[in-house]
Write a structure and sequence with these properties.
The complex is a heterodimer of chains A (about 80) and B (about 140). Chain A has two helices and five strands; from the N terminus they run βαβαβββ. Chain A is of the alpha+beta class. Chain B starts with 6 loop residues before the first strand and ends with a strand. Chain B has a single domain, classed as Aldehyde Oxidoreductase, domain 3. In chain B, helix 2 packs antiparallel against helix 3. In chain B, strands 1, 2, 3, 4, 5, 6, 7 and 8 form an eight-stranded mixed β-sheet that branches. In chain B, about 30% of the residues are buried. Classes of the chains: A alpha+beta (about 80), B alpha+beta (about 140). The interface between A and B is medium-sized, with 16 and 24 residues.
């Protein structure tokens, strides 16, 4: 079990009601996603990607203690 | 105003581009400067007028992403000498600037191509979000 920093952005913050939290998470990103969708059921209705330590992640990966994990809805700069 | 920062609270002042231009006068190898200013538009959505946009950013991720955009442009366009990007965070009202880009290069052709590509890369890769604010007080996330 790792403790990570979770950060929420854009429309994701409307679902979570907070912009960050420190949580104990399971071993992998896929398991974390399942945990978050159980905690915040409306997450499954919106589109988002993960970054781990400021790198966009495609697919699954192992999580480590102290990781900075962000839920990023589609970017809309400009 | 810090010409080397990538984010600014509120609208991007037009002076950013003139200050950069003045600084570029010392760099005499550049023959072309190309500029882009993105503005907040007063769109109508379902009969409601957009009055402004509230921008938010993943600050710690913006700098490495901008560096990767610059690396990509410098690799593709060897004539480039400078790429400057400044994006707003917080409230930007209709008519105000939310994004400024300046490209310096030896000759004009690569400056035009790199400028257009830079703006597309910013829209695709920069971790920034916007919430439209409407005249009736309601809001809507874009993206």
């Amino acid at each position: 079990m790792a403790t990570v920093n979770l950060m929420y952005f854009g429309s994701v913050t409307d679902v979570t009601g907070i912009s960050s939290e420190k949580v104990d998470v399971p071993a992998t990103l896929d398991e974390l996603n399942e945990m978050l969708q159980a905690r915040y059921p409306k997450l499954s209705a919106i589109s988002y990607r993960f970054s781990v330590n400021r790198q966009l992640i495609t697919g699954n990966r192992q999580l480590a203690d102290g990781d900075d994990i962000a839920l990023l809805p589609p970017f809309a700069g400009g | 105003m810090d010409l080397n920062s990538f984010l600014i609270e509120g609208p991007v002042p037009a002076m950013y581009l003139s200050d950069l231009t003045n600084r570029e006068q010392e760099k005499t190898a550049s023959g072309a400067l190309a500029f882009f200013l993105g503005k907040v538009r007063n769109d109508m959505v379902d009969g409601k007028m957009v009055t402004g946009i509230e921008y938010s950013a993943y600050y710690e991720m913006v700098e490495p992403v901008i560096q990767s955009i610059k690396d990509e442009l410098f690799n593709k366009y060897p004539d480039l000498s400078q790429v400057h990007i400044m994006h707003s965070t917080g409230l930007v009202k209709c008519g105000e600037n939310s994004l400024a880009v300046m490209i310096a290069s030896g000759h004009r052709k690569q400056s035009f191509a790199a400028l257009a590509e830079c703006v597309e890369l910013i829209k695709e890769k920069l971790p920034i979000w916007k919430k439209e604010l409407f005249s009736d007080g309601t809001t809507r996330w874009i993206g």
